[in-house]
Amino acid sequence: MNHSVPQGHSALTELLQLALSRAGFLSEEPDGLWGPRTEEALRRFQKDNGLPVTGVPDAATRKALLPWLVGSRFVTIEKGDTFWGLAQKYGVTVTAILTANPTLDPDNLAIGQRVVVPLWFPVVPHNISFSSEALELSLLGLRLRYPFLRVESFGKSVMGRPLRLVTVGEGETEVFYNASHHANEWLTTPLLLTFLEEYSLALSEGKAIYGIPAEDLYRNVTLFLAPMVNPDGVDLVTGLLTEGPYYEQALRISGDYPSVPFPSGWKANIDGIDLNLQYPASWEEAKRIKEAAGWCSPAPRDYVGTAPLTAPESRAVYDFTMAHDFKLTLSYHSQGEIIYWKYLDRLPPHSYKIALCFGTVSGYSVEETPLQSGYAGYKDWFIDRYNRPGYTIEVGKGESPLPLSQFPRIYQDNLGILALGMRLAVELPEGCPCG
């Protein structure tokens, strides 16, 4: 959030409104539009927090709002403080405080120690348009609550934004889930993050997720999540990127393809390359098909690039995959409520059986990829290279970007896929554990 008041729709205004709403100063849902209600809520927040009442989100105000974005605050231990007392004061459980502070001894707290105290709401928001900024705040918040999560980067985007990776678990079996290869399919990012949060909570409380003991998954599986493969493109679609040379480049590219709405129809990376048409699995055939359809130059969608793996984001995913031994991968896209499981005539062991299981628990149809879209995707390359189960999951219905109102159903439909994907990568049971 910068010092000035954004004009028109702004992803930063949505974050500001989210923080004010969580803090109890704004009753309306975030809409990204600055107006009198948002300004008045900000003024009341500033007054209640002893800040200059300017109605402008200056640096001091942003700092005060940060706990309401990351979902935790730092508390300095005073005489007589206990974890139980802090839990009562802030409306959370002792377990939540213990989980967030694994190096502290609750029976030997020292005055002046800083304690992470989680707040009472989930970290990952479901009511704002996601952006790279929302991703960074969510990952910071999850890491504060669940220090056993490992957050790092596995590459950089065209604009130099980090491609974030989250790792959880200690098992020999490695599983990889990714989302937002396509910019206007950004709703898949909070989908993966919400699963990560629910899984982490179940781990901290010794509970199950989708009927599977979380501790069993943690002990047997190492899960890798790349929640936003295309941060530059996502920021263009959701309104964080609204000016500067890369924005102007995207405008010029879009001008060559006026039938694609800007920026809502943008799927590509910021250079106009479709990241899910960049993998070395019959890339030449994908090129032939897309060029025949008129996608011959950098475009908002469907341009394959000049060669495989020329886009830094796709190259990073490729290199990361090559450095690991994934037994199963899920690539999240939208829309259609479809599970794609096959590449050409490749039939990895158990892949169709697992796909049918995913279809049973989600209600999604299990289909073969249409020929016009059946080449050069991550799923295609993974199956071709490793002969192991890889899936593209198309969530929701309608036109991307899907409305936030679909998120609750999308999450419930996919919870079983996300949990069982880890279990089935370890061992395929007799029959489908549909629960």
Protein model, in words:
The structure is a single chain. The chain is of the alpha/beta class. Helix content is 39%, strand content 14%. It is built from 16 helices and 12 strands. The protein has helices spanning 11-22, 36-48, 59-65, 67-70, 83-90, 94-100, 132-145, 188-205, 214-220, 231-238, 245-255, 283-292, 312-322, 351-362, 378-386, 407-426, and strands at 72-76, 114-118, 150-156, 162-168, 173-179, 208-209, 212-213, 221-226, 326-334, 338-340, 365-367, 390-395. The protein has an 8-stranded mixed sheet, with helices on both faces. Strands 1-2 form a two-stranded antiparallel sheet. Strands 6-7 form a two-stranded antiparallel sheet. Helix 7 packs parallel to helix 8, helix 8 (188-205) packs across helix 16 (407-426) and helix 14 packs antiparallel against helix 16 (407-426). It is globular.
Task: Give structural attributes.
435 residues; alpha/beta; 8-stranded mixed β-sheet; two-stranded antiparallel ribbon; 39% helix
